[in-house]
Amino acid sequence: MHRLVLLCLALAMLAPAQTRRTKKPAAAPPLDPNAFPIVKLAIEGNHNFTVDQITKIAGVKVGDIVDKTKLDAAHERLVGCGAFDSVAYRYDPDANKKGVDLTFQVVEVPTLFPLMFEDLPASDADLRAWLKQHDPLFGPKVSGTKEALEHYRQLIADYLASAHDYHEAITGKLSSENPPDLVILFRPATPRPSIAQIQATNTGEIPAGVVQSTAYGVAVGTIYSEPRFRQVLENSIRPLYDAVGRIRVSFPAVETVAATDVKGVVVKFQVEQGPVYNFGTIQITGADTAKIEVPAVLKKIKTGQLANFDEVKAAQYRIEQDFHRLGYLRANTEVLRKVDDDKKTVDVNIRIISGPLYTFHQLTIAGLDLEGEPVIRKLWGLQPGNAFVPGYPDHFLERVNEMGLFDDLKSTEAETNIDQDKHTVDVTLTFKAGRAAPKKRKDPTRPF
Description:
Blueprint: H1 2-14, E1 36-44, H2 51-58, E2 65-66, H3 68-80, E3 84-93, E4 100-108, E5 112-117, H4 124-134, E6 141-143, H5 146-164, E7 170-178, E8 181-188, E9 195-201, H6 208-219, H7 226-242, E10 250-258, E11 265-272, E12 278-285, H8 294-297, H9 309-325, E13 332-340, E14 345-353, E15 359-366, H10 372-379, H11 392-403, E16 411-419, E17 424-432
Parallel strand pairs: 1-4, 5-8, 9-11, 12-14, 15-17
Antiparallel strand pairs: 1-2, 3-4, 5-6, 7-8, 10-11, 13-14, 16-17
Helix pairs in contact: 4-5, 6-7
């Protein structure tokens, strides 16, 4: 204890004699008079993307010290991502004169497209997760500009190389894989194979040969992709099952194998025909149903009968033709289904969209002289303002030819000119190589 006290006294006596040495801080670099902190950051013109998404691409945030060089670099990053038609920026002193208020003005690319992936060694979910992680602007739909396509193509290539040791070239381009919509499709750069053969399994009550031959006629020889082939199944094979009440038919599996005897692939698909459904309630709605003979139209579509949608299509065609003959040239129908899976019934509503009424406006006759033309005009039955009947001009000329009104008449032709704005129809009748004077008949002016 005595020794410890003596040591403390000695140190105390030496302390004043020692020289204090403090390390001076390094001199701060001179401030750039043209660089200022960002006090406020705003985006103008954005609709599809948030402020946070855009500023992450720009690479700037509140508090950053920026100058014109850094702002120009942020501008170039926004331009280069391919999501904007134009990008501009402005900055003004903030309210306290301690920094700048920075605003980016963007015009977004107006149309965005969904993405699809094909024949790549990674799942759809993994690819989307990677893109979302590495691109702040990635979402269900993205821009289809050249810059954006290359940006995503490179991100996908990087992921496949690192996670799956896949180094094949891939392409990304707009494609009509899901008509009528366009999608951005990323796939290997190698050409797609053609469909050489088709094999259907588990076809149920429709013989496999019928199913295969139906698909064969529209698919064999075409370039294969699963979305396109599934469209073939929906458009060509589903109607076969709709005609026998199997309205819940599905195609759970589609796969391909290389053809052994020819160049191309064999497409194998499985059918799940589902249960039989009967018709429930039947309705015709939309336009004035008094214009058609409803009982005749629905003669073969009855509640409780097998749900044969071939008969529904026939009813649609008859309704449309009836309305066309009444002058509703653009009339069409759509079928609305309401399925009761417990009762195994399907209610059908044939909805009529009549469209505008088209009327006859003017008749022009070419190729006849002053004696022949009045005869044709008197025979012509349609008057200006009457509903125009499709097929009437051709039928009229057939009757004229049958009557033999003109010698040496080699041909006749009817041309219709439809004014879609005024909903009127002009008709031109052309008579070629006919004599000017009509033959003498007992009643050459008898109207049709």
